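Give me the fold.
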Amino acid sequence: MTDAAELQRRTAELLAAYPVETTDRLDFLKARFDAGLAWVHYPEGLGGLGAPRSLQVVVDAELEAAGAPDNDSRRNGIGLGMAAPTILKYGTEEQKQCYLRPLWIGEEVWCQLFSEPGAGSDLAALGTRAVREGDEWVVNGQKVWTSGAHNARWAILIARTDPDVPKHAGITYFVCDMTDPGVDVRPLRQITGEAEFNEVFLTDVRIPDSRRLGAVGDGWRVAQTTLNNERVAIGGMRLPREGGMIGPVVKTWRERPALRTHDLHQRLLKLWVESEVARLTAERLRQQLVAGQPGPEGAGMKLAFARLNQEISGLEVELRGEEGLLYDDWTMRRPELVDFTGRDAGYRYLRAKGNSIEGGTSEVLLNIVAERVLGLPSEPRTDKDVAWKDLAR
């Protein structure tokens, strides 16, 4: 069993062999992956050492103290937080060897082709078709709200392979090359002025069967691993005290006493406490992950994340008064990542509106918490046993 002392020793050896001051950033990250220090709980040869997940902080602390480069995880959040654990669980050995190393070091960015114009909250109703032709699948359809598709090399994709069975049963999970012919990425300009999201049109895109994850028709089960990890990645991110959205509000409150009122003070105290509770709960959830894959509890964290972000950003706009109504830049651009704290209050207020939609709408997540966490009776479902082709659309 690899312990903390062993990881410290291995990290010291990495730093000695690849000095931070003289080693190219990508070369260092490749060496770190090959040394098993990328994600220590992954198997040997896949960036890990089969060590307890809780020991990752040992490696991260040593490398941060040495000034070592990181893999800029925010830029490839979908790849690291969603694609990688799904590939690890369902991928073949060849797929793991092919995808995980360039994914972790950031050479290849990933996106997610799940939601569709007619299948967002009801994702299992998706209509993108994949028809098998020999050793390939021919895919046609449209996906929407695809974060980072304009930067991505690969995508995790779910498509309907059997329309004659109930909607959850006829889905298959693929890895799609975003550079293939027939993949058309178009920007979706948002209320913020940016186009971090995209719509993606798939026209006769040919995907080799070797890029299928899991069995044919078992894509919904595979997708649950992705979705559970997505909710944890969004709602359970590691933050310091007063990290995230509460930080800029608290900073303004302390530095500009003239803006304070009794009502705003009471609301800020309430949201500060709730933010701290959410931060500590997220830490507890991450510790639970040491024992296995994330479950439906991540839905509760994602719910809290969305509600808090919207309430905090609203309070910040009120606190700043007329200044809070200003907006720094409406220029249309296609950013590589979402930076909540790097822009002004107006941006945070507008961008937070999407938090209750992306990664599962709050309404759907409330159902998940009710049924899978609290054990309450599920809502009546008239479409559960009906073939997808017979559903009203």
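The chain has a mean pLDDT of 92.
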